Amino acid sequence: MAAYNFSIVHLSIFFCYTISLVSFVYGGGFSVDLIHRDSPLSPFYSSTDKASDRAESAICRSIERCSHFSKKKPSSEKSSNKLGNITSTVVPGVVGDYLMLLAVGTPALPLLAVADTGSDIIWFQCTPCDVCFPQTISAIFAPENSSTYENIPCATKECDALSSVSNVVPCDGNACKYNASYGDGSISIGNFARETLTFQSTEGTESVISVSNMAFGCGHNNTGIFSALGAGLVGLDAGPFSLVSQLGSIIDNKFSYCLVNVNANTTASKLTFGSNPKLVDGSKVVSTPIIFKENQSFYYLTLEAISVGDIRVPFNTSASSNNEVLLEKGNIVIDSGSTVTSLPADFYAAFEAEMKKAITVNPVIDPNTSLRLCYPGDSDPSSVPAVTAHFTDADIVLNPLNLFKLNGDNDELFACLAFLPTDDVAIYGNIVQNNFIVEYDLVNKLVSFMSTDCRMP
């Protein structure tokens, strides 16, 4: 697959078929490319950046995600968010790790946006800008130039429902308002509106998919540390105004993704809306319940234990042998936007201790990373023990690429355990999800996993 040329010209060519938009009547679903921000396919990528710097930025983004899910707001852009005793400073584009192409309006304006399973709204920068961050690879969306744009009035069910996902009164005069805020202190504020969204499908019979009357945030005040290379965010959680929820029964209330390892840098990951046909072989699929918590739309799962070889490390390491301490349901968020997996400090310590016992190679210190347990990058992979994540009704067997993040530069490489302790929300990150089809079924409230090679079509 050739690398994307992320220019305004290229984005326009990418959606050249949108001159004659098609209606969204496609029962088989559709797929789009997901581009990891650290892949050479991404406009964020620079060949002059050190690999160790990219790795540490990914870890910092994961730390910030803990604040996002706990809804904690730092007092300033430089304030601390802690994962165990690690303190991070915020980094540009902290909202998520994966980007997707889509277009908004009529005529369709191609945009690049963050795809985020931890966000509940779709928003893009809009003119006129009260405050906008620089947007370099596409024009900022101008509502007055689109024949399908419509502000949502205050006296509507949409505006009433917005109050459940917004932290401000969603009305100003006759225009419904939204406020999207993030753990790093960034915000997007503007009009809540309806518009046509268009996608370039990589599978299925329709090459271009157009969806009308989609509710989204038209951001006129966007402040914080958003990157100039993106235009906004596409929320994929279970909130009423995420892309998934708005597509709803049209996609059977299902979506899935298959994330390639970031080191497989010539292949994009896939995001599929609708049933994934590759999951028809039930013998290879395991499923675990989604736990939805009150006033939250994140995807919580129940992680019961992690096995290192034959040693089972329970999530509640303080539980007594007679189970006096019951396991909390929904104790970990599954998230495509976090690189590393964050575990409660005592659970992490017990898991790390078992990994040290099982791996015969002596650990080393990588001075370039906050990750705790590292080994020489040329260590024998056969020394890594079998590791299984035990969710309710689903055992996920992890391979070494799911467990370790390669770090360092050509002169010295390290393989570091891609887990960290947290005193905040536990998160099942995207490295442990690499090379799995992960499907979310919002009707049956299940997340399903099937091991595969995500580089394969």
In words, what does this structure look like?
This protein has 457 residues and is mainly β. Helix content is 12%, strand content 33%. It has six helices and 28 strands. A hairpin with a 5-residue loop joins β8 (177-181) and β9. It is globular. Residues 1-27 and 72-94 have low confidence and may be disordered.
Global outline: globular
Share of β-strand residues: 25-35%
Tell me the number of helical segments per DSSP (H or I, 4 or more residues long): 6
Mean pLDDT: 81
| Unreliable stretches | 1-27, 72-94
Share in helix: 10-25%
Q: Work out the radius of gyration.
A: 22 Å
Q: First CA to last CA: what distance?
A: 11 Å
Q: Which secondary-structure class do the elements indicate? A: mainly beta
Largest sheet strand order: 4-5-11-6-10-9
- How many DSSP-defined strands? 28
Tell me the major beta sheet.
6 strands, mixed, barrel
Q: What can be said about this structure in brief?
A:
By secondary structure, the chain is mainly beta. It contains six helices and 28 strands. The protein is 12% helix and 33% strand.
